[in-house]
Amino acid sequence: MTPRKPTVTRPAAARAASAEGGTAPKAVAAPEAAASGSATGQGGSVSQLDRTGGAVAAGKVLEFPTPRKSHRLRNILLALTAAVLVLGGVVAYAVFSPALALRTVVVEGNTLVPTPEVDAALAPLMGTSLTQITPDEVRGLLADKAPIEDVDIAAEPPSTLVVTVRERVPVAVLQNGSGFVLIDTEGRQLASVAQRDEVELPLIDGGTNAVNSQVFSSITEVLAELPVGVLSRLNNASAASVDSIRLSLSGDQRIFWGSSERSAEKARVLEAMLAMPETDPPVREFDVSTPDRPVTR
Predict the structure, then answer these.
(1) Are residues 162 and 187 in the same domain?
(2) Domain containing 116 — which CATH number?
(3) Residues 141 and 247 reside in one and the same domain
(4) pTM, full prediction
């Protein structure tokens, strides 16, 4: 008896394909479906990058996380702090560095105050950084020097300070015992001279007490208006009253000024009259008390 072959049951699709004379296609699971199924089996879904031959598919961009705002702010603060510290160090070096300590003082513009006196007065500044020395500090140290009206300073690193002195202008001479003193328009004594002819300025009668007279300010007001060329030719200045100011020139010539009013006009007229050619006989007096109608005698 011939053994019976077992019956094999094929799927309907296979049977249909067989009936049509073809071969049934093999089922191939798509990677996406497999991955989805695997992930679903674990209770979640995970997206996967599509890959073609192991490379990132075209059109896909990988984005990296940007730094948080707090990190950027911290970096800015650190940079600012570093800059401030560096600047502070530079300033501290400039202010306190011994490399900028004062060692030399150069004095300019002084004629009435001797340079050694200025150097001695500024000695307390030696060793001080040039950046710490102020004009007011220098003025304070020179405040007792009557001829000095003001000063300017300029630092010349590494260790030199240039002090430019602006002095008051003397306009007359007063006799003081056996000597003489130079005074300005306010009667301030600026300097002493041993001989009268050491300076080309007029002598005001009355000695040092003349500064207390009622006519003193009127006389100095007149002298302040005179050009240097005229002032240097004067020998004497006096006044019996504020309306009778008289000046004397070398060569026994006199000037009747009158009051101190319109002194600027009188000064211009007098300068023009003195520039005229000499006459015969020579002029003995120039009267400019009325500048509109000057008179010579």
Answers:
(1) no
(2) 3.10.20.310
(3) no
(4) 0.64
- Torsion angle defined by CA atoms of residues 258, 259, 265 and 267, in that order, rounded to the nearest 10 degrees: 60
pLDDT digits 0-9 by tens, 53-89 = 555 455 566 665 655 667 777 778 877 887 887 776 6
> What is the per-residue burial (b if ≥16 Cβ within 10 Å, else e) of 234-271?
bbebbbeebeebbbbbeeebbbebbbbebbeebbebbe
Domain match, 176 and 163 both: no
What confidence tens digit (pLDDT) does each residue in 130-157 have? 989 999 999 999 999 999 999 999 999 9
Instruction: Give the pLDDT of residue 43.
Output: 44
87 domain residue, yes or no? no
Q: Is residue 94 within a helix (H) or strand (E), and if so which, with residue range?
A: helix 69-96
Q: Name the token pair of 105.
A: 């003082």
140: containing domain = 98-167
Domains of the chain: total: 2
- Establish whether the linkage from the previous residue to 281 is cis, with ω within 30° of 0: yes
Asked whether residue 103 falls in the same domain as residue 139, the answer is: yes
**121 Cα distance to chain centroid:** 26
Tokens of 207: 């000695």
